[in-house]
Amino acid sequence: MLKINNKRSMMPLQQNLYLETPWDFKGADTKYYTHGLHSYPAMMIPQIAARLIKENLKNGDVILDPFCGSGTVLVESMLTGKESFGIDINPLTKLIAESKTTLYDIDELNKTYSKLLQRIETSEPVKPPKFFNIDFWFKPKAIEDLAKIRDAINNIPNKFKAFFLTCFSETVRKSSNVRQGGFKLHRISEDDFKGYNPEPLAIFKKHIEKCMPKIAEFHNVLDNPPKPIVLLEDTRKKTSVPDDCVDLIVTSPPYGDSRTTVAYGQFSRLSLKWLGFDEKVVNIIDKMLLGGTKADNLWKVITPTLNEYVTKIEQKDVQRANDVLSFYVDLDKCFVELNRVTRKGARICMVVGNRTVKGYQIPTHKIIQELGEDHDMNHINTIFRNIPSKRIPSRNSPSNKKGDISNTMTQEAIVVLQKI
Ligand SMILES: C[S@@+](CC[C@H](N)C(=O)[O-])C[C@H]1O[C@@H](n2cnc3c(N)ncnc32)[C@H](O)[C@@H]1O
Prior knowledge:
This protein has 420 residues and is an alpha/beta fold. Helices cover 42% and strands 14% of the residues. It has two domains: 46-103 and 224-256 and 291-419, Rossmann fold; 106-221, no CATH class.
């Protein structure tokens, strides 16, 4: 039977609902400086990261994003001259976040690019990597060109490799047979497939040439900022971030388990295979993320709101109720780690989406508030914003059945907590 933790306060939840919220940033350019170097699912809008840092970092200098994804918060931390840590469990994010936050010598980068192009354009055919179904996901000409680009990048100086591998990874996705605009691995339709002839080298060049001037601008506005530390680690466990050192957390955790929400692992799979990561690890990334596997001790973390919703879902589908709980058990473990690394008085800002399961929209913002209270954090405020553009499922299949879709993520909440 369900047990409610009585330690928790049953105070009504404070909310600050802005109808036409200035947090929407509708029409804003979200790809300035290095933000457009690589796409990623459910990226945070850089303007939100910037504003959260500006309004919540009162004392101190250290910012953490414990689910850093492509590194949006880390780039914005550099722009404010603050030190930062980013943690993510998906290996592709380390590559992307590192290259977005490295200050390259632009002249040298340009010279390396010219040499790289020369090498690719004069290259003999190169043996492509071997991985399962490569012919299903790429046309023969795409495989041939991608193999040449990948091989040529092996031969450039190490200090520029991360940048070109990131652009290569973006090229892999854009020249694959995957339907663009989503994040799951669905192949384009048979009709589109026939006339589809992607040209990886042209895609690679176009992307780099679009990014170079923005990278140069990024350099110009920065005055020797500290380099963010990107950790390929699991936030549910003790990480390499030292005790009591973080003054501000700005983050957007996943919305739920990646099988039924955002499949970060599927999104990254083809890139990681081309980059030479171990196929066995690459195939199970989604299982490694929050809620990816069934947790033990399911009812341990129950909060009043979670109890209410899991009980309703359980009446329709016990398995789905367990999936939902597993996700929050994992999130609770992350709170233990966030508590360890933050200083007293540190603010914790979480941008969260309220997903729908079995017809019930789960108020994750309330659950986060309650979990925070269990981990010595006071609730300061919750701000709601509309999502004008973000790569998330605004329509998803809550039951995971084809055709059963509902509108879920047109709004998200920013929950601000403070460590007592
Ligand atoms: C909403 S995305 C973050 C997007 C990021 N704010 C950006 O702008 O690109 C959530 C991230 O949480 C990561 N994640 C999921 N489970 C994790 C865990 N146990 N430890 C660390 N990161 C995890 C996923 O890999 C994903 O990159």
